[in-house]
What we know:
Elements: H1 8-15, E1 22-25, H2 32-40, E2 46-51, H3 54-63, E3 71-75, E4 89-95, H4 100-104, H5 130-136, H6 139-150, H7 155-168, H8 174-185, H9 195-205, H10 208-222, E5 223-233, H11 236-248, E6 252-254, H12 264-269, E7 277-283
Parallel strand pairs: 1-2, 1-4, 2-3, 4-5
Antiparallel strand pairs: 5-7, 6-7
Helix pairs in contact: 6-7, 6-9, 7-8, 10-11
Amino acid sequence: MSHIPVLAKEVLEGLALGPGMTVLDGTLGLGGHAALMLEATSPNGKLIGVERDSRNWAVAKERLANYGDRVKTIRDSYGNIANYDVPPLDGVLLDLGFSSVHVDNADRGFSFMKEGPLDMRYDQTQELTAEVIVNSWSRDDLNRLLREYGEEHFSGEIAKAITETRKKQRITTTTQLADLILKLAGGRGHIHPATKTFQALRIAVNDEFGELTRGLDELTKLLKPGGRLAVITFHSLEDRIVKQFMKESELLEPLTKKPIIGSDEEVKSNPRSRSAKLRIGVKK
Ligand SMILES: C[S@@+](CC[C@H](N)C(=O)[O-])C[C@H]1O[C@@H](n2cnc3c(N)ncnc32)[C@H](O)[C@@H]1O
């Protein structure tokens, strides 16, 4: 399993890390950025790693085991950080969204290119799945979800097709849903017509905007004065939340007016970095 950390150089520079600092990675993933943060704070810096997905959490924990007691991990959402005893922080990173493992493993239900259950949960102990939303939300609610979280122009048509289809047969797989949307869209558009629907479902299943809003607030409180918050987003809705927060928070000074994006070189070698945007804020 591999995951190339996105905007790695820019994150390290933006966080201005040095020996002995205490940092928190709120989206540990497979521990790529975390390992770099540990190197940048060596020999004695500390890292708290938070990850909601138990599989990724276990992989990261194992990967970072050689750093011994410099690392502490929490298997939970970073949005719940207020429930933990966290020391004052010099730096915080959020690298939002899903990881390569989620899209590569069909059984997690994140990819419309692979047949799998309509799941999309990061935390597989929670009850709400994409299948529940697709089969039980009203047409109006589905329409609103696709419009607001997917920015899907054809939200009404897709919501109608979903509610018509499920009258005959429960929609349980990724390909069932993707094919239904594909049929509706014909050859329209240059991205797969199910892209936005899948994004919207993923955001709703994991309450991604709720977690982000709570997390930004709580994590900023934990920063020391002068401590830095770095957030990498992958679509405009997330970026808007981060931008607004950094502009309006009384506790934070935005360091980046415009978000930092990947170099041409990185974008060429790591397709995931294509849509990545990094914003940095400094605690007042
Ligand atoms: C893009 S990946 C992070 C990759 C990581 N920076 C690395 O270098 O390996 C995002 C990770 O955040 C996790 N995640 C998503 N929402 C979360 C949340 N609210 N709290 C904690 N982890 C979350 C996902 O399960 C995924 O593993």
